[in-house]
Write a structure and sequence with these properties.
Strand order of the largest sheet: 2-1-3-4-5-11-10
Shape: globular
Distance between the termini: 43 Å
Number of strands: 12
Bound molecules: beta-D-glucopyranose
Radius of gyration: 21 Å
Length: 372
Amino acid sequence: MNTRMRRAAVVVAAGAMAVSLAACGSAKEAGGGEKKPSGSAAAGDAIKVGLLLPENQTARYEKFDKPLIEKKIADLTGGKAQVVYANAKQDATTQNSQVDTMITNKVNVLIVDAVDAKAIAGSVKKAKDAGIPVVAYDRLAEGPIDGYTSFDNEEVGKVQGKALLEALGDKAKDGQIVMMNGSVTDPNAALFKKGAHSVLDGKVNIGKEYDTKEWKPENANTNMAGALSALGKDKVIGVYSANDGMAGGIITALKAAGLNPLPPVTGQDAELAGVQRIVAGEQFMSVYKPYAPEAAAAAEMAVALAQGKKADDIINNKVDSPTTKGVPSVLIPVVSLTKSNIKDTVVKDGVYTVDEICTDKYAAACAAIGLK
Ligand code: BGC
């Protein structure tokens, strides 16, 4: 497929999924409106799905991904499926033993968001050998996976880079920027970084760049403090942060150094704290990745595979991992989130209400940008 066709397919599929998700989320449709995959025998719905998420310091996993996947699996199986959940809290060894436990527990399918895409490969193979299909969630796990759902992650990096350039305007070369990338064990981090570099290189001066151990906000905070003293705090005109969690640690370091006004800082995940910092003018942007269609696609693939079907009907792409070629995939487009489109994105999609964002602390800032 050429790139344009692929994009068109992505948009269509994401749109279709958003529609089916909106339907399943509305009270009217609750318990009824969802279409079950045709031919699923009653016994075929009583499946056991293992769900493995990588960490719990980034808000998305337990606030959005887990409940959205569980809800969609329940909808697809008439509430008969069981989801067994484990969170690796950023430890790849823990995650490998969680896979072993799931194999012992005889799950029918695994959904895995890998802490370390390489380190999980042996466990993916073990599951496969035990007859358990594996869906890679968000991060492209290595090993013989059967399906993959994520966003266009290189595009995420481009969106972040473009927003930073826009914020810097004609001052883009009047100082240094600092780049705070994600963890080297996460293949998404490499794609975010690649996308960002493709936009920023040659247009800005990159004074310091870090790969942040375990995506930890406190590590980003320490690195930012180091960059400010190495480069001189007045020379830093912008910060590329790969996600909102790290942006929080970075902004704390910028404030601690007494920078005022703060230079533009990017992010990703549309975390509530990130959206509130955008409202308050402390963070320039985030990337809104609609988790509902991503979760729905993973659930659909997992249920189909557990029932012995192929996931091919719902895919819109094929991707290659370093170990496995042509993995059936669903990739969902992303949106740049700034203070101008909060209402049209996270509020419209029901991720947060205006009241959740505009608490007392942010009331004045919300009023100033017309968010009500
Ligand atoms: C995810 C991001 C997340 C980061 C840290 C990435 O793989 O795509 O949404 O912020 O991991 O957990």
